[in-house]
Amino acid sequence: MTQTVTTDDGVRLWASRQGQGQGRPLVLCHGGPGLWDHLEDVAELLSDRAAVVRWDQRGCGRSERCAGPWTTERFVADLDAVRRHFGLERMALLGHSWGAQLALSYALARPERVDALVYVSGTGIDPVSDWHGPFKENFLARLGEVPERLARWRELPDGDRERAVLQWSIEFEDREGASEHAGRMADPWFGINTECNKALNDETRRAWGTPELYAACEALDLPVLIVDGAEDIRPRSAVDSLERALPRGRRVVLREAGHLPWVEDPTGFREAVTGVL
Q1: How many Cβ atoms from other residues are within 10 Å of residue 275's Cβ?
Q2: pTM confidence score
Q3: CATH of 2-126+208-260, one of 3.40.630.10, 3.40.50.1820, 3.30.160.670, 3.40.50.720
């Protein structure tokens, strides 16, 4: 069931709700920034356990194109508009990649609205400079396993669909199925909001890794499940900072999975997350 959520500044967001499970309601936050919801498979895995809400973030995917603002504070407010629209007094939050950062930011800002947080394939709370160099090396090495693929990726402009599929194909440990998995992420294709992507990534570089952020995470009195794919090309050591800070954190590492662990280990992913629900 798809619906339109209207934010407090009048922007219309695409949203969908499915499932009637008896667990606490679950809201999903997709990655990016600048992309659209790609968590339908996650919703299918969990909708027998909980009502699951998905949404496209501001200016992205099926949501209304707008001029921003592209800030975490604004996106946290949008997520709260989604919560209110569906009548959720409290909810579990699951965020993937950039969406894990957004879900964590929401939990820090509005902990009274969150029952539990599932932090999937994030990059922790240390400065971006601590992990981005090794990630870039891993990225080029993985893409360069097929030299023609790397050369083609370099030829194409930012925001191009073919370029995105090439880039996403290295996010899976399953080399044989990687192109098919990446193609599914791009079908349908809504176009990448590159302005949103740049602005929010720039904000993260400025704001992440501060003493205030560490202190806020140390004070977060919520159950938090961290889920990693061991073969993610982002150094998993980056997430150690968050794991150390959380007073009620638990971590599950899925050994044969990459950046989208529910694709390559759906059973392990479901078992981990249903414990929270």
Answers
A1: 13
A2: 0.97
A3: 3.40.50.1820
